[in-house]
């Protein structure tokens, strides 16, 4: 048979293609090992059950130390915080001064100007500048930044970076240099919607703890003012801060609160201060608040000066104040922005509104059910005609209706708020009376009670008083006079047994303190209130230490503490 040269080429090509196909089917040892490592990594990542950074670092590298090999650190960062998977985690590797470094940061928190200035300075370095102790030289001589620290623990570095810091790693070094380059997205301080005043500061807390602390620090320049920072939550690592004046506050309360916060064992507190309150204060199902919330820096500063402890929680625009009392929650900053006489008048009007929100409807129902209880001058009280529904059913429906309108007002866009008000006033109120479902006086007194609830400075206290009003209405409808008397007694007893960190909730009414009660009922002039409230158990009880001779003993006690 005749042999052709092109046949050899075809056969060679066939052999080559077969070899190529076999090569594709039989993976090289290097690729096989890489695939095995990838599968092992994927399996290990899916099986991880770490609740915090420390556990995750130990899971991946067996110890919490920073490796001198950049590759190992890169792999740990990839496994723990998703380097390469999460878009905002950046690990910039470069050569500065002849040394291989890695710069870790979150670009969502990065302060570009500071980072560029630091890197610009480091680019001028030569290998001669870093002959020995490269990263140590960075730390001591060449990083033009103020807030710089070192750490040998990978978990510490990662936790810092997750809060906005940035960190330098260097090949051959077993520690990292951490820089404070945080730049949180914040809104400008503006006046809180729940605590508006006619005269006074227009700034309010924001969702950033550092800004909130600064707003209080601006008003209090006392060297004894302390802010203790800690973190809560295995996953969220939420920043929490205790604020107090060291030589005034009750240190036993501070130690107790600090220990309770440190012992909180939760995945996290993404809802901030309310979740923290429930973890450190065991109030069960009691509706009354045991802490006061405020969004005003001047209110918080004044409470700190009275010897109270305040708690800042990052991402929350409100601050917890404790201990607190029932009468504390009834006071508003507006009273102290007016003269003593006008402040006392406003306080009394507010007290009347709060009293009406709790007792006006039950007392009216009681006098309608038992007409013999009405004084002669109140004969006009009572429905002039009967409605299709019993009075207690009317009250319950109107109560639920008011709550429904309150919730609707929160979720209604501002341009539609006036339309919703017309619907509530005309359709719900007027038409319901004309159709005979409700009695005129039920709608009237319910409106007065709702106004009193909204006039309560503490939103939480207003909601609790509303539940008490509903309880008294049901008690009066079922048991009449005994229901009102026993119900009121049970409420007072509950509030008396209610304690806010070892302080009586009804102080100074129970236990009774005449001078303190006078300062509750009347807004005293500043110079007539030389002492701090005794319920706070302050170490220094005197506001004006040079007013009289008795202060010498107080100042002596202050020095002893």
Annotation keywords:
561 residues, alpha+beta, five-stranded antiparallel β-sheet, 18 helices, elongated, disordered N terminus, disordered C terminus
What would you note in describing this structure?
- It is built from 18 helices and ten strands.
- The strands form two sheets. The chain has a five-stranded antiparallel beta sheet, sandwiched between helices. A five-stranded antiparallel beta sheet has the order 6-7-9-10-8, with helices on both faces.
- It has 561 residues and is an alpha+beta fold.
- It is elongated, with a radius of gyration of 34 Å.
- 48% of the residues lie in helices and 10% in strands.
Concise structural overview:
It is built from 18 helices and ten strands. The chain is of the alpha+beta class and 561 residues long. Strand 1 and strand 2 form a beta hairpin.
Low-confidence stretches: 1-24, 547-561
From the N-terminal CA to the C-terminal CA, the straight-line distance is 116 Å
Helical coverage, percent range = 40-55%
Number of strands: 10
Secondary-structure element series: HHHHEEHHEHEEHEEHHEHEEHHHHHHH
Instruction: Name the average pLDDT.
Output: 83
- Helical stretch tally: 18
Q: Tell me what portion of residues adopts beta-strand conformation.
A: 5-15%
Shape: elongated
Secondary-structure-based class equals alpha+beta
> Taking Cα atoms only, what radius of gyration do you get, to the nearest Å?
34 Å
The biggest beta sheet, please?
5 strands, antiparallel
Biggest sheet strand line-up:
1-2-4-5-3
């Amino acid at each position: 048979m005749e042999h052709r040269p092109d046949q050899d080429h075809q056969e060679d090509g066939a052999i080559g293609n077969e070899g190529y196909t076999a090569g594709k089917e039989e993976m090289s040892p290097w690729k096989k090992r890489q695939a095995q490592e990838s599968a092992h990594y994927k399996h290990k990542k899916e099986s991880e059950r770490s609740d915090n950074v420390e556990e995750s670092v130990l899971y991946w590298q067996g110890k919490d130390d920073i490796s001198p090999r950049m590759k190992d650190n890169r792999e740990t960062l990839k496994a723990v915080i998703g380097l390469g998977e999460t878009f905002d985690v950046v690990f910039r590797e470069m050569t500065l001064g002849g040394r291989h470094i890695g710069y870790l940061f979150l670009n969502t928190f990065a302060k570009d100007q500071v980072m560029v200035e630091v890197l610009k300075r480091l680019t001028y370095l030569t290998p001669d500048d870093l002959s020995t102790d490269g990263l140590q030289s960075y730390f001591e001589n060449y990083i033009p930044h103020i807030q710089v620290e070192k750490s040998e623990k990978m978990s510490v570095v990662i936790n810092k970076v997750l809060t906005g810091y940035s960190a330098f790693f260097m090949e051959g070094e077993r520690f990292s240099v951490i820089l404070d380059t945080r730049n949180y997205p914040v809104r400008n301080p503006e006046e809180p919607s729940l605590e508006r005043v006619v005269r006074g500061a227009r700034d309010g807390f924001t969702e950033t703890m550092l800004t909130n602390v600064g707003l209080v620090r601006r008003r209090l320049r006392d060297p004894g003012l302390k802010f203790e920072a800690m973190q809560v939550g295995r996953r969220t690592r939420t920043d929490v801060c205790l604020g107090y004046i060291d030589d005034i506050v009750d240190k036993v309360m501070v130690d107790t609160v600090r220990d309770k916060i440190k012992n909180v064992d939760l995945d996290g507190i993404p809802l901030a201060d309310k979740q923290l309150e429930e973890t450190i204060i065991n109030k069960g199902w009691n509706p009354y608040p045991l802490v006061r919330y405020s969004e005003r820096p001047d209110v918080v500063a004044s409470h700190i000066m009275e010897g109270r402890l305040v708690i800042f929680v990052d991402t929350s625009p409100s601050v917890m104040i404790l201990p607190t009392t029932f009468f504390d929650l009834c006071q508003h900053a507006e009273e102290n922005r007016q003269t003593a006489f006008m402040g006392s008048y406003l306080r009394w009007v507010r007290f009347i509104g709060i009293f009406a929100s709790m007792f006006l409807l039950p007392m009216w129902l009681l006098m309608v059910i038992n007409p013999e209880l009405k004084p002669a001058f109140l004969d006009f009280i009572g429905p002039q005609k009967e409605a299709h529904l019993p009075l207690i059913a009317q009250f319950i429906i109107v109560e639920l209706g008011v709550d429904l309108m309150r919730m609707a007002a929160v979720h209604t866009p501002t341009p539609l708020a006036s339309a919703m008000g017309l619907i509530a006033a005309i359709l719900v109120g007027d038409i319901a009376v004309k159709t005979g479902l409700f009695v005129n006086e039920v709608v009237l007194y319910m409106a007065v009670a709702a106004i009193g609830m909204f006039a309560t400075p503490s939103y939480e206290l207003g909601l609790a008083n509303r539940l008490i009003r509903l309880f008294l209405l049901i008690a009066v409808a079922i048991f009449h006079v005994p229901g009102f008397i026993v119900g009121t007694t049970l409420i007072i007893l509950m509030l008396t047994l209610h304690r806010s960190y070892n302080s009586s909730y009804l102080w100074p009414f129970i236990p009774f303190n005449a001078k303190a009660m006078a300062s509750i009922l009347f807004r005293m002039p500043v110079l007539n209130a030389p002492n701090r409230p005794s319920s706070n158990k302050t170490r220094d009880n005197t506001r004006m230490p040079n007013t009289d001779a008795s202060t010498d003993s107080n100042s002596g006690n202050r020095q002893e503490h």
